[in-house]
C-alpha cells in the first residue's frame, strides 16, 4: 500500500474504549431515547439493539422511525460540556501522532462540538487537516460512502492512498466497500465494552485488527 493520508475515527479510536466517556455517551444516548419515546431504559436498550443495525447512527434511527426533529436537543443531552470530565489525559498521544509523519483527518459520527472538545482536551486539534462530523455530512455519516469520500477528497487525497482507523467493523467495512484500506481498532481484554449493535456483519472476515493507535507505527512499516 502507498499510504499518503490517515483518516481517523475519534471516539474509542484515538483514545481507548475503557475510558469512562464510552459508557457515559451510551448511557446518555439511551436515556434520551427512553425519555423521547416514553419507555423504560431497558426497553430503550432492547429497541435500539434491534433497530440500530439498519441505520448508521442512533440519531438517524430516531429521525427516520420516530420523527425526531430537535437535533440540537439530542446533541445537548448526549454530549453535555461536562462529558469531558469522563476522559483521562494521555501525555504520549500528541507525540505518537506527530511521529506518523502523514497528513491526518478526523471522520466522526459525533457533532463538531464534541469532536473539538475531545481534540482540545488531548491538545491535538492542530494536528488534523480537517474534522468531518455528522452535521457536515448532512447527518449521513459512516457507513455511507459519501461520508468517507467527502472527508478524503476535501483533504486532497484518494480512497486508495488513504488508510482508515475505526473501532467498529461496520464502519471499517464501509470504507473497504469503496475500495479503501481500513484497520479495526479493537482494544484487547476490555470486558467493559459490550458488542456494538452495528458489529454484526460478517463481511470482510480478513479485517486487520490492532489494539490501540500505538500499534500504528509498526503497522505502517509493514504496509
Please provide a written account of the structure.
With 223 residues, the chain is an alpha/beta fold. The protein contains 9 helices and 6 strands, in the order E-H-H-H-H-H-E-H-E-H-E-H-E-E-H. It has helices spanning 20-37, 41-51, 58-66, 71-78, 93-99, 112-121, 145-154, 169-177, 216-222, and strands at residues 5-8, 104-107, 131-132, 162-166, 181-185, 208-210. A 6-stranded parallel sheet has the order 3-2-1-4-5-6, sandwiched between helices. The termini are close together.
Report how far the terminal alpha carbons are from each other: 5 Å
The major beta sheet can be summarized as:
6 strands, parallel
**CA-atom Rg in angstroms:** 17 Å
Give the averaged pLDDT, no decimals: 93
User: In sequence order, what are the helices and strands, one letter per element?
Assistant: EHHHHHEHEHEHEEH
Count of helical regions: 9
User: What strand order characterises the main sheet?
Assistant: 3-2-1-4-5-6
Oligomer designation? single chain
Strand content: 5-15%
- Uncertain stretches of 5 or more adjacent residues: 189-200
Cα shape:
globular
Highlighted features:
223 residues; six-stranded parallel beta sheet; 9 helices
Topology:
Layout: E1 5-8, H1 20-37, H2 41-51, H3 58-66, H4 71-78, H5 93-99, E2 104-107, H6 112-121, E3 131-132, H7 145-154, E4 162-166, H8 169-177, E5 181-185, E6 208-210, H9 216-222
Parallel strand pairs: 1-2, 1-4, 2-3, 4-5, 5-6
Helix pairs in contact: 1-2
Amino acid at each position: 500500500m502507498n499510504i499518503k493520508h490517515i483518516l481517523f475515527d475519534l471516539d474509542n479510536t484515538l483514545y481507548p474504549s475503557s475510558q469512562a466517556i464510552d459508557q457515559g455517551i451510551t448511557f446518555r444516548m439511551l436515556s434520551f431515547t427512553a425519555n423521547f419515546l416514553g419507555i423504560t431504559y431497558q426497553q430503550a436498550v432492547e429497541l435500539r439493539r434491534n433497530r440500530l443495525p439498519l441505520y448508521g447512527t442512533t440519531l438517524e434511527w430516531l429521525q427516520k422511525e420516530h420523527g425526531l426533529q430537535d437535533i440540537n436537543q439530542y446533541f445537548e443531552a448526549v454530549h453535555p460540556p461536562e462529558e469531558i470530565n469522563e476522559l483521562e489525559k494521555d501525555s504520549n498521544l500528541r507525540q505518537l501522532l506527530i511521529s506518523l509523519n502523514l497528513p491526518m483527518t478526523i471522520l466522526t459520527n459525533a457533532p463538531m462540538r464534541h469532536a473539538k472538545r475531545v481534540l482540545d482536551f488531548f491538545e491535538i486539534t492542530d494536528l488534523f487537516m480537517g474534522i468531518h462530523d455528522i452535521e457536515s455530512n448532512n447527518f449521513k455519516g459512516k457507513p455511507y460512502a459519501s461520508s468517507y469520500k467527502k472527508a478524503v477528497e476535501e483533504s486532497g487525497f484518494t480512497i486508495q492512498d488513504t488508510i482508515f482507523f475505526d473501532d467498529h467493523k461496520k464502519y471499517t467495512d464501509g470504507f473497504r466497500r469503496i475500495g479503501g484500506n481500513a484497520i479495526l481498532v479493537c482494544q484487547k481484554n476490555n470486558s467493559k465494552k459490550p458488542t456494538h449493535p452495528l458489529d454484526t456483519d460478517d463481511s470482510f472476515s480478513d479485517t486487520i485488527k490492532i489494539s490501540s493507535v500505538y500499534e500504528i507505527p509498526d503497522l505502517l512499516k509493514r504496509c
